[in-house]
Amino acid sequence: MDLIFQIQKHLNIYDKLKIDSKIPFSRFERDSNGGQVYISADGLDREEVRFSKFINRLRSIFQEIILKPLWLQLALDFPELKDDELIQANLGIQYIKDNVFEQIREQEVMEKKMQFIMTLKDYTENDQSTAYFDSEWLISRYLGMTKDDLEQNKQWKAKQNKENKDDEEGDAKTAVDSFGV
Q: Residues 41, 108: contact at Cβ < 8 Å?
């Protein structure tokens, strides 16, 4: 009876650890092959979203703990920088995000936006021959692309078109040379 009580006590401690750690239970279950990992935003647990927010809060706390002593030491070593708010405002830590769920969710949101844009793009006026909406307007409005993003996209498209044209000219020249013309 004593052994059963001790095992139950350890299980309660383990459950409390899982709850206090704020790590989603599905991650604990994965180790024992009990949990399932969904690779879509539909299967994205609210637990995972909360956990991601929790990690971001921890990161901001650690950033403050690390950067404050760094700034103080920098101000002591270089007194002329003490009053420079620009340097202090630009000190920061960039964390590497390794959250597959967040990436998948962003991709699925982008895919849904693209489907919405394609639906609006196919909408035509009364004569059924001209599109009602301009593609560029739809993209800037619903994908949130800035003018700089659109300009950069145009440059990439022009570069790709030039490369394709050069490839076609090279293929035509090869074909002419092979016939001995």
A: yes
